[in-house]
Every structure is written in C-alpha cells, then in structure tokens.
Fold each of these.
Amino acid sequence: MYNFNYQRASSLDDAVAKLGAASDGTLLAGGQTLIPTLKQRLASHSDVIDLSGIGDLRGISADGGGVTVGALTRHAEVAASADVPAALAALADGIGDPQVRNCGTLGGSIANADPAADYPAAVLGLGATVNTNLRSIAADDFFTGLFETALNDGEIITSVTFPTPQKAGYAKFPNPASRYAMVGVFAAQMGDGVRVAVTGAGPCVFRVAEMESALAGNWSADAVAGISVSADGLNSDLHGSAEYRAHLVTVMAKRAVAAAG
Amino acid sequence: MPTVSMTVNGQAVSGEVEDRTLLVQFLRENLRLTGTHVGCDTSQCGACVVHVNGDSMKSCSMLALQAEGAEVTTIEGLASNGELNPMQQAFMDNHGLQCGFCTPGMVMSAMDLVAKNPNPDEATIRENLEGNLCRCTGYHNIVKAVQQAAKTMGG
C-alpha cells in the first residue's frame, strides 16, 4: 500500500473541505473495497478522509411512504432491521461474509458502483432516492456506468430513501469464491408499477422493461420464464461468458419473483 | 508519525503508526500479539479476524487509525488464568484444527456468531463461517466444535 495522509472528518462540511483541499483525496466509509484496493496498489490517493466519525449518517428511520437508511449504515444493521423491506434485509444479509457486513456500508457500496455489487439492484429495483449533501438523485439517474455514478466532485451520499414495495424479492447467483453477484435480480411490485433491476450481468445495473411489463400483467415466475436479455454488451470474464450471464438473468428473475411471493 | 490509542484485550495501548498501517500490523508488529494471523493479501481468508467494539472484523481490511478509541479483542484475550475459553476448548476436543493457521480467525468469527445467535444450527454455522478459509479440515470438525461450544456457552 502506498502511503497517504489519513484524516478523520468531523462533519459533512469538514469532509467536503478536506476533500477539496486534497490533491487526490478519497472518502473512506466501511473500507471493504477501498482498503483491499489500496493494499493491492490498484489505487493510490494523497488523502484518505474517514467519514465514520459523522454520527448522523448512520441509522435507519421509517416514515409513512418508506424507509431512509443513512449512508454509513452497515450491511449487518440493514440485514437485522425490521423497518426495511424484507427483500432489502435479505439482500444485505447475503453481501460478502459476516465480517464484511460488520464494516461495509450502503453509501460506500453504491458510491463505488461495482458492477457485481448487490445494493445497486435494490436501489434501482425499488426506485429509491439517493440523498447527498447537495441534492436528491433518482435511482434511475444515479448509476451511469462501470464504477460510475452521477455524483459530482465534493458530493457525498448522506442517505438512501427506499419506497415500500407491495411485493419484492432478490435472487443472486453468487460467485462461489467472492460471493459477488455473477447475476442478481431484484424484482419489485411498487404502487406505480413493476421494476426489475439486474446487477452483475452488465457493466452497470440495468432494468429489463420487457420483464416489467410482463410482471405488471401477471406477477408470477412463469411470466418471465420466456423472456431473455441479449448477451450483447454483458460482462464476459473467467467466471462466465456473456451468454451464460444472459441465461442467468432469466433464471434469477424467476427466483426473485418466486421469493417475493 | 501519528499516535493511535485503543483498548486491546482490556488494556489501554498506544503506539506510533504510519497512516497506512493496518490494524493487523499494529497488533502483530507493535503489540507483538502474533496470534492474529495474515493468511492472504486479498481480504479473503479471515485468519486476521478480531473483534472491534464487539463485532468481528478483518483486521487486515482496516487501518490502525480507524480503530482509534476502539475496544479490540484478539485471540489472546479469550483465555483467562490459563483456562481455555469454551470455544477454544471445543476446537481442541473436536479436532477442529490441523495446521492451526486459520484457527484464531475461526474462533473469533465463531465467538461473534454464538454471541449473536446462541443456538445456531449447522447450516447457520457454515454460512457464518463463510469468511474464514481452512485448507486442512474440510470444515466438518470446525462446525462440530462450534456446535459444542454453543451448548457449553449456554445456548
């Protein structure tokens, strides 16, 4: 690991100021991607600014239309929460391993936007709103590409607001070594329609409109059984080809709908 | 170099570290608590698991400075007055180790599991040890050890 200047932010404003003053600063939340990446020298930064001291970024609060999860809330806390949708708790309970879940955070995960991370599927699948120190961003506008989001320089996620689904389920085919999603599908019946979000398969989480309209008419695994996505542009690596992942999308979609009940 | 202070196995400790020093390096190299192992360089093996403020975490995936003010428990903090902790005893009774390299992390992860779920079934134990790799035992006797310890510890 190349050395850096470690700084602890006392508030959001302090974090923004420290980030702005650094020549090449980065933010540290749970660190479960950042620290291993720094260790492997896949990244180096002049400054690492630790957000963990900002207490009001952590916690879960339910209100009428949904639930707001603070950006520094750990996966284990979401997994154990009775206030979040059951499918979201189950998704959080399947991230990594228990030690990762005891450190990793919602905000850190979606800011990183790993193509095989679980949380982006729930954020997009539930049509959540990502709240930052500057604005609120709809999930449909948040994930923009491979490790790319709509976040601007100096913009920090503060929380995510998830609307309450009528039904929701998540199914993933975990890579047996890393537990990352080879493919994960989040299917949700919301008040204003059905949403199906796919992670792991492509460079960025995406929705499948054909499955959404099929499920709107008939909420059952059978409704998506005959719908497949094109392998064009999907991820292909030593773990599986694009065609294999395209096939898994249909299988995981069926399982997600079945899990939702 | 910055100074970091924390409580390790009930004792207040502090030391000079680099900003990039990992918690596991601070434990092993500054404090000479070498029971916490480093089995990989990729955060996958779990040999370095310790408890930080009561939760199991990988001390290789955390900076020492992140643990400023924290309560840390390592494998050295489990036995008292020369008596093995029930989890350690159960690993011994059930031949839950062969080479022993992964054992400190296994024991610390299992302690966290049993603290949060006093009566885990076999599937739960296997799922909760997902972050700990063992190249010797095939895990079977490790699972038996955790089951015995959970009973002994009052589950």
Amino acid sequence: MKSKTKSRAARNKAWELLAAGLIRAVSYSIVVVIGYIVLDIVVKGLPAVNWDFISTFPRKSGSEGGILPAIVGTAYLVAGAIVVAMPLGMASAVYLSEYASQGRFTRIIRLAIITLAGVPSIVFGLFGLGLFVIFFGFGASILSGSLTLAFMILPTIIVSSEEALRAVPQSLREGSLALGATRWQTIYRNVLPYALPGMFTGSILGVGRAAGETAPILFTVAAFYLPRLPSSVFDQVMALPYHLYVLATQLPEAEKVLPLQYGTALVLLLLVLIFNLAAIVLRNHFRKKVQW
Amino acid sequence: MLRRRPSGSFLRLFDMKSFREKIIFYVLLGAASTSCIVVLLIFLFLGKEAFPFIWDPGLMELLRTRWVPVSYSEEIFGLIPLFTGSVVVTVLATVIMIPFGVLGAIYIAEMASNLERTVLKPFVEILAGIPSVVIGFFGLVVLSPIIKEAFGLQTGLTALTGAILLALMAIPTVISISEDAIRSVPRSYKEASLALGAGRMQTIWKVVVPAALPGIIAAIMLGMGRVIGETMVVLMVTGNAARISFDPFESVRTMTATIAAEMGEVAFGSHHYQALFWVGLVLLVITFGLNVVARKALKKYQMQG
C-alpha cells in the first residue's frame, strides 16, 4: 500500500518535470527562431550595406546600385503619416480618457477603434485607392500613401495614448479641479505632462509599423523603379518594403541580386527595430521611474 | 487708483473661459469621431467600387468555383478557390500557433524567472515588429528550400510554408493577450489547488488554463484575424495557384494575395476591378466578425475577474 502511493508520487513528479521541460522548450524555441531570422538577415545583409548602398541611386531597374530613393520615400511616407495620425490619435485619447461618458456614442467610438485595428492592411490599400487616389484625385502619390498609412496606425496611437493617460492618478485631477481650474487647464497642466512620454511610445510604435508595411502602399504610392527624388507631395516614390518585394520576386534573375535583397532587408529591419526598441525602452523607463 | 470693472466685463471674461473650454471639447470630440468616420468610409468606398457588380454580371458569379480573371473566351470571378486558399492557410497557421502561443504565454506568466521574463518579452515584441515583407523574404530564400528538401516537393512555395510564417507572425498577439488572461486568474484559485496537494503543472493545466480559457480563445481568434488579413507573406511564399485544394503541400492563392497581385494591372472600373473589391469586402467582414466576437469575449471575461 505504502509503496503504491510512493510510486504514484514519483510518477506525478516525473510528469511535472516533463511538462515543465516541454513548456520551457517550446518557449525557448520561439526565441531561437526569432534569433535565427534576425541573425540570418544581419549576417548575410551586412556585406552588402555600406555608404554607397544607402547613398546612391539604383541602376538597371534595381539590380545594381543603391537604395537611396527608397529610404527617402519611406522617410517621407512615415513623416506624412505621423504628422496626421499623432495629433488625431492623441486628441482622440484625451477625449476618451478625460471627457467621454459611458454612453452609446463612446461605445460606438470604441467599437470603431477596435474595428480599425483589425482591418487587414491590404483592405486599407483598397480604401486608400478608392478614397484618396480616385475620389479625391490625389493619384498615386506621397499624399495618398501617407494618409492611408496614417489611418492604419491611428488605433495603435489611440490605444497606447489612452493607456498612458489612465495611468495618471485621479487625485492629480481632483486636486486641480478643487482649486478651481477648468477641465482643460487640469488636463493641460496636471495630466498631459505626466502622460506625454507614454503617449509618444504609441506614436513611435506607429512609426515602426508605417515604415514596414507594404500592402497599404502598393496601389496608393509605391513606384516599381523611380531613380530620382520626389519634388512634391503629388509624386510617386519608391519605398523600402516595396523595393524589397520587387527585388525578391519581380526581377528576372532574382538569384543574382541576392546580396542586394539581403542588404535592403537589413536596412528595413534595422529601421523598424530601432523604432520599436526605442518605444520599448522609453515605456519601461517611464514605468519604472514614475511610481505613484 | 483702482478702477472698478463694470460687471458686464467680468461676465464676458467668464464666458470667454467657458467658450474656450467648449471649443476644446468639440475639437477633441471631432478627433475622436475620425475613427468612426474612417470605418464608415472604408465600408462605403469598398462598397462603392464593388457595387456595380451586383447588376452585371451578378452576385452568383462570385460563388463559382474558378477564378479566371483574364481570358479571351470567358472571364470567371468565382471567389471559392481564393476563399478555400485563405481557409487552408489560416487553419494550418492556427494549428501551429496554438501550442507555441499558449505554452509561451503560460511560461511567461507562470513559470519564468524575472530575468527570463525581461529577456523573453522584448524578444516577442521584436518578433511583432519585424515587417511582414522581411518575414516573406526570409521564407522565400531560407524556409521554402528547406520545405522543398524535407518533403521532397517540386516547389517549396506551398500552403504549409506560408502557414508556418504566418503562425510566427501571429504568435506575439496570442502570447500577449493569453498572458494577460492567465495573469488575471485570481491567486486564490492557484493557492487552493496547491494547498490540496496538486503539483505546479497540474495546477496550471487543471485550474489556471481552464479559468483563463475564454481569454485564451479570444487571443487565438485575434491571432487568426491577423493571419487571414496578412498579405505580403502569402503573396511571396504560397505559390499563388488559384485552385481548390486542401493539400498543405500544394500551392494556394489567398484572398489577400489575389488583391495585391492583380489590383496593380487591372483596368479601372472593369468587372475584374469590381470583383477584387468584393474580395476586399469579404475579408473586411470576416476580420470584423472575428475581432468583435473576440473583444466581446475578452470584455465579459475581464468583468468576471
């Protein structure tokens, strides 16, 4: 009898260890895979990336030369998107966190934000094509592309800005209101200064996303091969993610330009990762520093 | 000498203040409404471009089983092969992402030391940040040759290749939302189970996971929403053959890849153009449904906890 319970306990213990080991192995395998992808692109991309590569124009439909216009194009697109999305997103967040009541209207706004966050990026592309390119007549241009990207990253900015605003303790607002300040004075002087770093986190994440997306810019701005810099917001531009797609799939001898593909992938990856890391570091820094 | 202000001026001053408050309120309200307006515009403009298709050639055309958008004899705009393509890739990706996403979340929430957590979480966030075109490129040059070799196939551009990469892209979503769900299971549940003599794994498996299950299911649904809407990866690695097939080792063409590949060359206003907008509408409705159901489940669940 006694030995039976003992062996059962031993078996249970073995199962426990096995299960724990399995879960640990699965979790670490995710890290290994991510590490492998990043390393593969860094190791094979580094030889191709030098000053010439990022500062010269492409030649022979991209199969030779650098990627300067793609970098500049992506910079314009991201700048345009953030100029539109940041004020809109932050203002939406202030409304939702500081003014909105629990009414039907607020529920509709929240539903819209959730919906917007789930819309596939290619559908944003179709929307941009229908509204900006055709209906407003902007054509395939920086303006159309930036606006499309802006609405795509809007929910990211709203959600994280609101989170930052809600983290500011209620007592700060109450103190200010009790001293006779108006609602906006309270928000402007007692809430926003503490929430702003967190609000910027969302915008930085949005920048990273806008820089890396391909599908929304396919029909709204991206040029296959355009070895010059844009002169107005109504120009088409090349963009890094689309350029990588073209190099990898649309050139007749894709094998030969493999170093260029890896180089472009590395530049794009670094660009996006720098923004994401900056956002993560900034967020962790302020979570640690600000303790109420 | 102190001049007395006429009382009217004081009133005006007060009005100015409340006037400014009002203006600010309406500006913020307007900003918050843009999300609603954009969602409406998305439905409106997709519908507007797709609409004429209803009369000619008619909606039944979309239910045909072949997609032959460019042809001299007869153009066919059946969405069924594109739909099954998306379904095959999504189901495969979901099967792959569930164990990794859920076990990863369990590990981060319940088992990892603080040090491990500070390493694991940024790694997952890095994965979430890698652009889809980079993942697609990696799949094209590294993963697809491996798949081709491993299974002795003619080509490595298969539904399975796409599904593996899409699972990878959805894992961060599944992990972060499942982790929240697991964390919000009350401590007392765990303590009760441990006090009764259950082991750590037993407690996780029999108490924590069932209690967090609605949240975990919502996380999986949101992951599926990401998978079904993802474009560049499937465009680059699934081979894009528009035919009805449920074999993971064959090439498939998804709805997203069809739009991306064909919209660039299509004649404005043609049947083909309208059909592509219908594909977009179908995608929009599917992802909308998945999102709304998942968020409802999450919200209900959070209220209980």
